[in-house]
Amino acid sequence: MHSEARTWHAHAKINLALHVTGRRADGYHMIESLAVFTRFGDRVETELADSDAFSVSGKYASAVPLDGGNLVVKARDALRDAAGLEQTPPVAIRLEKNLPVASGVGGGSSDAAAVLRGLAQTWGLSIDDAELAQIGLSLGADVPMCLAAKPLIARGVGDELSIVPGFPALGLVLVNPGTAVSTAQVFAALSRRDNEGLPPLPRTFDFHSVRNWLEITRNDLEPAALAIQPAIGRALSMLNRAGSGFSRMSGSGATCFGLFETGNVAKRAAAEIRGREPDWFVAATRSMTSEAD
Prior knowledge:
This protein has helices at 71-83, 107-122, 129-139, 143-148, 183-188, 207-215, 222-228, 231-241, 263-276, and strands spanning 6-23, 29-48, 53-57, 91-96, 152-155, 160-163, 171-176, 246-249, 256-260, 281-286. It is α+β, with helices and mostly antiparallel strands. The protein folds into two domains: 6-163, 2-Layer Sandwich (Ribosomal Protein S5, domain 2); 171-286, 2-Layer Sandwich (Alpha-Beta Plaits), CATH 3.30.70. The strands form two sheets. Strands 1, 2, 3, 4, 5 and 6 form a six-stranded mixed β-sheet that branches. β1 and β2 (29-48) form a beta hairpin. α1 runs parallel beside α2 (107-122). The longest helix has 16 residues, at 107-122. The radius of gyration is 19 Å and the shape is globular. The two termini are 30 Å apart.
């Protein structure tokens, strides 16, 4: 049984601001985060097959487990459990891994989201976004965010989402100094967990209003991650040297982003950083707008 192979984008998730506002009794941290999703990311291909298969290619393929420990496989199995075996014949899934692993840009969660979306269509399931988000949440707190893949504010453990209308595409350069950082380790090293939430968003959005707003926000995970992995500081200073309008670490690191006024300026900055640090992960990209399909 075969169908046309279809390709799905797994966008990188960038936490422009991330405030840790508390901790639940079950140990999960409460957050408030403004997140955007970039055009650059991983790609997932799905098609019906004679038996289930999962393969990985791309620059960071070697860091991806191929067994049930992988979120892609977990996503396939979770959707199959929800829809029933009758509706979910064997599929081949191919992942092109362009994002570094454990790098604070939601790569694994975004891959899982792309698989949920892709297989729902490949299998022709009548499943709505809310159901998909529920299945996603069972895989990880970031998956519902990555299913939405639009500029949004995430609250709670990352599961309460509100899309931010009218948010512009931002020119971004992503830089990772080639070091994986454990999210659990970063959260464990936090000096305090009851910080203030995000300030109100600007009334109108453009490069300057977004940058000015970011100046009064934080990534509460950055100091802890910097202490664990000093290379993050070098990534930030590289972005600043290359003319970034605003630089910060995303998520729990080690990927950092720089904000640039245009795509061309971002491309030039990325080339400059790549010239200095050829072994680093460096990508110039744009974020998706609220209206992006």
